[in-house]
Amino acid sequence: MTNPHAPSAAPQPLQPPQPVPGPDSDRRVADRYRTVWRIAKVKRDGDVGLWRVRNMSDRGMMLAADVPVAVGEVLEVALSDAVAVRGTVVWSEGGRCGVAFDEEVDVADVLKRLAAEQRASGYRQPRLPVHTQAQVVTDEGTSSIELVDLSQSGAGFIHEGHFEVGKELDLVLASGIRRKAIVRWARGNRGGLWLTQPLDRADLESIRHFQN
After folding, report:
1. Which of 50, 53, 101, 151 is the most buried (most CB within 10 A)?
2. Is the CB of residue 151 less than 8 Å from the CB of residue 120?
3. How far, in Å, CA of 189 to CA of 135, rounded?
């Protein structure tokens, strides 16, 4: 029988919620996080890549990338040309990492801004700044171009010849990757390609993949 005069157990202190969900989190604070599944441009010391955002809260986010990531690394994550956050890697495991923001954000407002940008005319996917030689193969032969940016389905380039809009070709990157493409626009010595065979996300996780 319970003694009514026995002292009650001391209340246990509440545990503060994690600022960033860990790799084995049971997501008990899932209502605080928003699933995003968006490609973002991630700048780190000496490198830039396109990584996938898995989820995001006011205080942090989870990113997916197969390149090595070290705890303590500082990352700048550009969710679009106008929306970027900065933070520090607090855990890294199995192709995922957690980033704690330097400053809290209003994640609901951020996602609303990103959705509005995506609906606006002229929106384009995040692109990697690259400066590397590539080859284009057409029925007339093979020529060299300089790539200036890359996304999963597009590329900007500089050339010395003439490329007609709508022309079909094969783009061969320095790493040996080959993709079917169509000239989307051309003005002067600059042009843009639409990759009818998109690049794999893993191919774009580091610009080092494209360095000659």
Report:
1. 50
2. no
3. 16
Q: How many CB atoms lie within 10 A of CB 138?
A: 13
- Asked if 84 contacts 76 with a C-beta cutoff of 8 angstroms, the reply is yes
Q: How many residues does the chain have?
A: 212
Q: How far apart are alpha carbons 94 and 99 in whole angstroms?
A: 15
Residue 137 burial (CB count, 10 A): 13
CA angle at residue 150 from 203 to 163, to 5 degrees? 125
Which tokens is 12 given?
């246990």
**Cα–Cα distance between 119 and 141 in angstroms, integer?**
39
pLDDT tens figures, 119-156: 887 777 788 999 899 999 998 899 999 999 999 999 99
- Taking alpha carbons only, the member of 53, 118, 119 closest to residue 87 is 53
* CA–CA dist 24, 14 (Å, integer): 21
How confident is the model over 150-173, as pLDDT tens digits? 999 999 999 987 889 999 999 999
Strand stretches in 57-103, DSSP E: 60-64, 74-78, 84-93, 96-101
Q: What is the pTM of this model?
A: 0.77
Residue recorded with tokens 């029988």: 1
Amino acid at position 140, single letter: E
| Per-residue pLDDT tens over the stretch 117-129 | 888 877 777 889 9
